[in-house]
Amino acid sequence: MTSGAEQWGRKTQFRRGVPVARALLLLALLLGLLPVRPAAQDWFRTGTGLGVKKIRLALPDFAGPAPGSSLGTLFNQVLWNDLEYSGILEMVSKSFYPLPASWPTAPSQLQPAAWTAAPVAAQMILYGSLSQQQSGLEVHAWLNDLGNPAAAPVLAKIYRGNADPQDIRRLAHELADDVVQLLSGGVPGIAQTRIAFTSTRSGRPELWVMDYDGANQQQLTHLGTAALTPRWSPDGTLIAFTCFEPYRGVLSAQICIYSLLAHRLLGFPRFAGTTSSPSWSPDGRQLAFMGSALGGTQIFVSDASGGHRRQLTFVPRTVNTSPMWNPRTGQQIVFVSDRGGSPQLYLMNADGSNVVKIDLPDMGYVIDPAWSPNGQLLAFSWRRPGGNYDLYVMDLASHQLLELTRDAGRNERPSWAPDGRHLVFESTRSGSRQIWTMLADGSGLRQLTTGGENFSPNWSWH
Amino acid sequence: MREGSGRKAAWVVAVAMLALLGGACKKKVQAPLPAAPPAPAPPPPAPTVSLKASPTFVTRGESSTLTWTSTNATELDLEPGVGKVAPEGSTTVSPTTSTTYTITATGPGGNASDSVRITVGPPAAPKLAPGPSLEELFAQNIRDAFFDFDRADLRPDAREALTRDAEFLRTHAQIRVTIEGHCDERGSLEYNLGLGQRRADAAREFLVSLGVTADRLRTMSWGKEHPFCTDHNETCWQQNRRAHLVMAQ
Question: Chain B neighbours among A 280-309 (CB < 8 Å)?
């Protein structure tokens, strides 16, 4: 621990995310002290389902569509990866399974005893097959509760698509999401979600999107100036971002809106000075953003089309930026302000009233706040005195803090996945700015990009 | 018959008449002269000389070329200030005031002279092509304002630079300026967009307070997206923490 940690206020506690055991203990204690909530809410509060035992799932390879088929291999890889990364399952290693000859591809072939016995000791089993039909590719999938072998499968479903890698991925993602939905008590899976980000691999910073697992990376803009800070609209059809466009002859930061349906930019008003960091209200009808006023930058709100612009902060010669609406209620906005000297986090009502500073036990430079989907947690990046930019999660009700990264490069701009269990962020830990994902307790780190500089990630709402 | 004596007498008369006549037609036969002196030589030809100047109008400091030719001259003198010269030639002069140059050619046949006047005018008014352009003047005279880390307030050196900038801008009222705010790499992307704007606004406010008309000054921020250098040390970071003044087109 740094000396900064010794200056804690009495109220807040401060723990590293790794080792996980300590965090588990802390959070379990916290849960015990907090008002009782339904089981699904406990899950959200911990962010990962920690404190709830993970379900042991066996996943023998799905058979087909043909022996040695690369599509079959791809399907099984993507499916395994999706379920393993969900954060709620303990995938039983295939090295413990019975011989492949006895792997079921249909319910009639399932021998539950072989899968509940040691060393497999699985609680659930997901199995099935791929087959090429005239109409296309079919995936038949079953999910059985091994503790209740006589009962009907929990899931029995056919998924249809084309026999190409794109659709194979989609089919695996759909199945994975269905399984996660069933086994997590209703929390949606993220296998079909996407991440928007900025990449310089084509020269200047441009807007890109990719699948949540880093597949299908695609360039959306070719502006040649700079496309930064993208944010998905709640319905997933638009991405608002910071661009550089001329206003009255001055090339300056403006807000741009990219339409994924029309594959082009939509019109948006331009303003003098710097306009940036657009953030969507949860109903998709409004944008909050940073604009120039009073010798500095202030928080503004407008319609999604840029009309009815109104100013929310009025502190001269200060920077007020990085606004984000509470995604559950739409009633509050968190933002960054240096009105106290260095950038810190503040909360205010959506009309600009009741501005409250979020106190942290240490001074420093606090940026990039990101509200969890349930509106209860804030993730952010914090550079403590003498320290590095590291990611933290704070419970807003109790101000309990969880440290997610330490001594591993510069880590910024966290963004929550819609399951409230995962975060995407930018990190320099590999030597250059790249996009990483992790579970919300700091474990499960995955690097999604490698070429060029990649930063400013944002996870889609669905 | 005295016929023969009459004929003899006619002959005498004829000869006498011829002699008389002959004597009357022909030059007077002078008495032989003593040896005459040689005929005086024709008088020697008079010298000629011609003097030209090119150009005949110069501005102070410029030079002109004098060119002359002559005939039948053995000595030539070009004044003022040149002296003895060859019968044919040229020379460069740089008179500081208007001067009439005279060349005198002397020869056996006499002398001759010619003159030409070179007018010296004041230095020419500056033309548009030579001399620095407005862009060059801007580059030579305008200085950026530099900032401390995470700060947008003006240091003394920044105030000094902007004060001089204001002088220049007040005396060149046709110039419009875009003030770009820049930050070093250590801050965050989003915060630095705001901090750069604060820096640009601080510089603008100061220039306006010194009498530069506000609508000549526009501000924007590049945050840390357009650095002047990319090294990871304070020398470079300081270079990037600035309000950068650019002439607007």
Answer: 290, 292, 295-297
Does any CB of chain B come closer than 8 Å to the CB of residue A199? no
Domain count, chain A: 2
Kindly state whether residues A316 and A445 are assigned to the same domain.
yes
For chain B, the domain total comes to: 2
> pLDDT (tens digit, 0 to 9) for every residue of chain A, 462 residues total?
333 333 333 333 444 444 444 444 444 444 433 333 333 333 334 444 445 689 999 999 999 899 889 999 999 999 999 999 999 999 999 999 999 999 999 999 999 999 999 999 999 999 999 999 998 999 999 999 999 988 999 999 999 999 999 999 999 999 999 999 999 988 889 999 999 999 999 999 999 999 999 999 999 999 999 999 999 999 999 999 999 999 999 999 999 999 999 999 999 999 999 999 999 999 999 999 999 999 999 999 999 999 999 999 999 999 999 999 999 999 999 999 999 999 999 999 999 999 999 999 877 999 999 999 999 999 999 998 877 999 999 999 999 999 999 989 999 999 999 999 999 999 999 999 999 999 999 999 999 999 999 999 999 999
**Residues of chain A contacting B187 with CB distance shorter than 8 Å:** 365
CB contact under 8 A, B178 and A250: yes
Q: Which of B121, B156, B177 is the last residue of a domain?
A: B121
Distance from CA of A292 to the nearest CA of B (A): 8
**Of A426, A450, A294, A298, nearest to A370 (Cα)?**
A426
Q: Which domain covers residue B53, as residue numbers? A: 48-121
Closest CA to A392 of A400, A383, A401, A372: A401
Cβ contact A38:A104 at 8 Å? no
- Is residue B229 within 8 A of residue B183, CB to CB? The reply is no
In a domain, A371, yes or no: yes
Contact B220 A251 (CB under 8 A): yes
Beta strands at B177-182 and B217-223: parallel, antiparallel or unpaired: parallel
Interchain CB distance below 8 Å, B190 and A249:
no
Q: Is B43 within a domain? A: no
Closest C-alpha to A441, from A1, A20, A14, A45: A20
Whether B240 and B170 map to the same domain: the answer is yes
- A130, with CB counted inside 10 A (0-12, 13-18, 19+), is buried
Asked which of A183, A207, A240 is the last residue of a domain, the reply is A183
CATH number, domain with residue B103: 2.60.40.10
Closest-CA residue in chain A for B217? A250
Q: Same domain, yes or no, for B145 and B200?
A: yes
Is A290 in Cβ contact with B193 (below 8 Å)? yes
Q: Which of A3, A1, A26, A32 minimizes the C-alpha distance to A401? A: A26
Q: Could you tell me if the ipTM is greater than 0.95?
A: no
